[in-house]
Amino acid sequence: MATCWQGLWAYRSYLIVICLPIFLLPLPLIVQRKEAYCAYSIILMALFWCTEALPLAVTALFPIILFPLMGIMDASEVCIEYFKDTNVLFFGGLMVAITVEHWNLHKRIALCVLLIIGVRPALLILGFMVVTAFLSMWISNTATTAMMLPIAHAVLEQLHGSHKDVEGGNENPTFELQEASPQKEGTLPQPLSSKVQKTQEHLRLSQGLSLCICYSASIGGIATLTGTTPNLVLQGQVNSLFPQNGNVVNFASWFGFAFPTMVILLLLAWVWLQILFLGFNFRKNFGFGEGEEERKQAAFQVIKTQHKLLGPMSFAEKAVTILFIILVILWFTREPGFFQGWGNVAFADENGQSMASDGTVAIFISVIMFIVPSKIPGLTQFPEKPGKLKPPPALLTWKIVNEKMPWNIVILLGGGFALAKGSEKSGLSEWLGDKLTPLQHIPPPATALILCLLIATFTECTSNVATTTLFLPILASMAQAICLHPLYVMLPCTLAASLAFMLPVATPPNAIVFSFGGLKVSDMARAGFLLNIIGVLVITLAVNSWSIPIFHLDTFPTWAHSNTSQCLLSSPNSTTPGP
Questions:
Q1: Are 531 and 269 in contact (CB under 8 A)?
Q2: Where is this region: Disordered (predicted)?
Q3: Helical spans, DSSP H, in 406-520
């Protein structure tokens, strides 16, 4: 019997793929309407995404098969959804990030900041969190974590070595951590207990430093539109569901909303991790005491050595830095909203809107990176063929892009946009909206808080991209039905999808940190549970304060009206019709 169950478990993916579509067949067979057909597709894809019976990107291709065969959309309409402007922005932004990674510019930035901040315990954790968060704003959260973790462990090993050199009562005031039961005055620690104490201190600092890296990678990604994929899912869903929105979610508006949220959440996470792993003695955590300079040199030297190994900035690093700064400036000034951007002035359509998008800028800079040489222009010789000359390679080559580009995420994004469009075309969105109208009697802040908690819980065991892809179209329909600004619920839920702090499988950064050892699932769950609550509260604060003037969340916009007269006359949630 045990062998039978083991066999079934071994073949569980095959069984799920075969049985689930058959098990769900009564829905489209009994209710023969487009809404039911679309619901069948969405439920099937949701279950496949949750169980990962098929690769996420393969499941994302289902609309190309199911929607035309069920009469929901033409195949040509479905395929267009797989490479929309948001996908182009994701593609272009990743090419820039790949270039930054390829030339090790991110490592130079990280080491420079750590040299400035120093290696006192509390500041060491803050330094790694600030650097990791900043880098994950622009490059992959996974790549940032994979780069920062070895640096952190090298520093920790040096710290542990410096502890071993401390003899007798010559304690290290800089790196000594707060103990739960300190010894009484006048008693001398035994050598064995002192050694165990130092080992426990090192383990706790190691755990805190490891968790601060993976948490800050997830937190930093929310600050920019290209920082993490759910942000782009939101932009794509808004543009797909509400074509007349006037590009309300762009790089500048998102940054104005999400960056302060990220800063507050990062600082609160730092305080929480410091209390949890370093104790309440903040004076000791910040390294005030005699002998501090001598004790911190060993760890500081590790960072300094790593920085020296990079050597002076190469021509390629300088070129990438300049292009990256130009990219950010162009993103911020294209269509900022509070003044006329270069897109509104030079490339405006008949309505005064910028015809160039953030994706246009990302692709423009990416193409330049394929043109600019990685060395000062000149000719170099082949080592194996001394007589043959060749030019230096470009900053970015297609071989590098092909190796590092996560094509599966590009397909996954497209599948989400196809689902949203299918829900709209089939009438499923309107049906869901009608069923959710009782929610108009709940205060909007309470609605947003409950939804954030739901998404934050769901994303612990499901891909954050799949989570936002499934929930955002439903939330948009709900907002239309109760005459609430769609972004009032879509923005916080998108951020909440990045609050995956409790489980190693929740995000790749969590898994990388867990694989390094020294952590148990209970350690991550204990630290992540309260951090999830803190994150939901910070997001709720953000959506009810500084995001209101940025996105006009106190109005029900005309571009979201599904039944204008009903909203204007009977909505208890909206104030005035907005633009």
A1: yes
A2: 163-192
A3: 407-426, 428-435, 444-458, 464-481, 486-496, 508-515
Number of Cβ within 10 Å of residue 544's Cβ equals: 17
The label of the residue with tokens 């609309």 reads: 63
**Torsion angles phi and psi, residue 472, rounded to 5:** -60, -45
Query: Tokens representing 136?
Result: 């994950």
DSSP one-letter code for 389: E
Asked if 140 and 95 count as a contact pair (C-beta separation under 8 A), the reply is no
Question: Coil, strand or helix: which one is 527?
Answer: helix
In the predicted model, is pLDDT for residue 187 greater than 70? Answer: no
3-state secondary structure 338-354: CCCCHHHHHCECCCCCE
Place of tokens 């190693």: 504
Tens of pLDDT, residue by residue over 504-513, are: 877 888 888 8
Residue type, 146: A
Asked if 490 contacts 472 with a C-beta cutoff of 8 angstroms, the reply is yes
Per DSSP bridges, beta strands 380-381 and 389-390 are antiparallel
140 burial type by CB count under 10 A (0-12 exposed, 13-18 middle, 19+ buried): buried
Tell which residue, 461, 510, 459, 468, has the closest CA to residue 489: 468
| Residue 188 banded pLDDT, cuts 50, 70, 90 | very low
Residue 394 DSSP label: B
Q: Which helix (H) or strand (E) holds 390?
A: strand 389-390
d(CA 198, CA 160): 8
Query: What is the sign, positive or negative, of the torsion defined by CA atoms of 408, 409, 412, 414?
Result: negative
The distance of Cα 404 from the centroid of its chain, to the nearest Å, equals 18
Distance of CA 235 to the CA centre of its chain: 14
pLDDT tens digit sequence for 209-255: 889 998 999 999 999 888 888 898 899 889 888 888 878 888 888 99
End-to-end, the C-alpha distance of the chain in Å comes to 65
- Residues 434, 480: contact at Cβ < 8 Å? no
Name the amino acid, one letter, at 161: G
CA distance 276 to 269: 10
Backbone dihedral angles phi then psi of residue 577, each to the nearest 5 degrees = -65, 135
Listed as own residue / partner, the contacts of 539-544 with beta carbons closer than 8 Å and 24 or more positions apart are 539/261, 539/452, 539/492, 539/495, 539/496, 540/445, 540/448, 540/449, 540/452, 540/492, 541/264, 542/257, 542/258, 542/260, 542/261, 542/264, 542/492, 542/495, 543/448, 543/488, 543/491, 543/492, 544/445, 544/448
Q: Burial level of 377, CB count in 10 A (0-12/13-18/19+)?
A: exposed
| Distance separating alpha carbons of residues 299 and 304, to the nearest angstrom | 9
Return the DSSP state at 170. Answer: -
pTM: 0.76
User: At residue 166, does pLDDT exceed 70?
Assistant: no
CB-based contacts of 482, cutoff 8 Å, min separation 6: 436, 437, 439, 440, 571, 573
CB contact set of 436 (below 8 Å; sequence gap of 6+): 477, 478, 481, 482
Q: CA geometry: angle at 433 spanning 494 and 554, to 5°?
A: 55
